[in-house]
Amino acid sequence: MFQPSRRQAVRACTLALLALAGGAASAQPGAVTGAPIKIALIESLSGSFANTGEAVFRNILWATERVNARGGVKLPGGARPLTVVRYDSKGTNEEALSALRAAIDDGAHFVLQGNSSATAAALIEAIAKHNQREPGRRVVFLNYSAVDPALTNDKCNFWHFRFDAHADMRLAALMDVMREDKALQRAYLIGQDYSFGQAVLREARRQLGLQRPDVAIVGDELHPVGRVKDFAPYAVKIKASGAQAVITGNWGNDLTLLVKAAREVGYDGMFYTFYGNAMGAPAALGEAGVGKVVAVADWLPNLPTKGSEDFYRAFRERFPRPQDDYVHMRMQLMIEALAQALERAASTDALPVARALESASVSLYGQTGHMRAADHQFQQPLVVGVMDRLGTPGVKFDVEGSGYGFRVVRQIAADKAQMPTTCQMQRF
């Protein structure tokens, strides 16, 4: 249970944010004035991964601002705005579960989280138990980044919807590029020691064995999540192994510090990454990363379409500081899907909204995606990019003012990116 002082602080923060949202809405011509629909963001907003939590918040805030600017969510009784209420998980499952209880007590029907598959698994279980115990206060869980494949396979749940491609889908996209890397004969696998990191290494071993059996795995290790301050010993081992490529799902500071250490010890091999295109990694590598860092994503700023360019420019106008340059199309599509489901359900109750989310199909700036009802895994195109200097062909935009961006080298259609599921979901 929460201590009274903490509960009061959470409620005070919630009320202040709601008042702020209402004030902003009333100041805009034709803005909605109905009671805000609360979206609870449970994320690391302090500690080692605070920068990732704040980056997510900017994405979700911008997405809700767009919905509100066009008149909010149309429901019986009038249009209502979306508002984001922040809850700090402090990077632990225990704090995330406490935040979940606080969010439910504060009246939220929609919970967002993603920057840890272990936390997502804990929330899925807790939400399933809560919804069974208290059907009058059910909640829906929208996951934008927790990509452990199990979450939409053997751990799938009716109340959980994932809007990111899971780890196996991302790795298959990277493998599309690795198949053509004829210089690759030795690979080093390294990842964070929890469910997601373990899943990435497990699938990397499997896919290399199937598609590049000629590649020797010369390193295969896991490290503590968010606790390694000096990756030099790992970088020394990587260099000494003779690996021509590192395959990693690391994210946040665990990735930035890893690539920085690799540069400092003189490692000049490739990095095949899930998240090498953001959060300081390009700046940490600098020239050493040109042509060497490959990243897979649902979207990249240099995707060669007019809609993509307009989308990216709009985000940078809203958040112009270079350090705030972290935008993901999937998070925008997620909020669009939620708004669509709310209107189709004509309700804010969790059950009808969840049923409507199962058939969500959304489009934004030319990018599209749809929810697969069988496992609640969002289906969308994927892209692979390689790091290059700003201004070179295909690199109109850099990352975080670093002078380096990602040139798109592969586009994978949604129907090609999808994978089968083992989900056996109990439906409501």
What is the gist of this entry?
By secondary structure, the protein is of the alpha/beta class.
> At the first level of CATH, what is the class of the largest domain?
Alpha Beta
Which geometry do the CA atoms define?
A: globular
CATH topology of the largest domain: Rossmann fold
How much strand content do the residues show? 15-25%
Biggest sheet: strand arrangement? 9-8-10-11-12-16-17
Count up the domains.
2
Let me know the CATH homologous superfamily of the largest domain.
Response regulator
- Secondary-structure element order, as H and E? HEHEEEHEHEEHEHEHEHEHEHHHEEEEEH
**SS element count, helices:** 13
List segments where confidence is low: pLDDT < 50 over at least 5 consecutive residues. 1-30
Helix and strand composition category:
alpha/beta
Question: Biggest β-sheet: count, sense, barrel?
Answer: 7 strands, mixed
Number of strands: 17
What topology emerges from the helices and strands here?
Blueprint: H1 4-26, E1 37-43, H2 50-69, E2 73-75, E3 78-80, E4 82-88, H3 93-105, E5 110-113, H4 117-133, E6 140-143, E7 160-162, H5 167-178, E8 186-192, H6 195-211, E9 216-223, H7 232-241, E10 245-248, H8 253-264, E11 270-273, H9 281-285, E12 293-297, H10 306-318, H11 329-345, H12 350-357, E13 361-364, E14 367-372, E15 377-379, E16 382-389, E17 404-412, H13 414-417
Parallel strand pairs: 1-4, 1-5, 5-6, 6-7, 8-9, 8-10, 10-11, 11-12
Antiparallel strand pairs: 2-3, 12-16, 13-14, 14-15, 16-17
Helix pairs in contact: 2-11, 3-4, 5-6, 7-8, 11-12
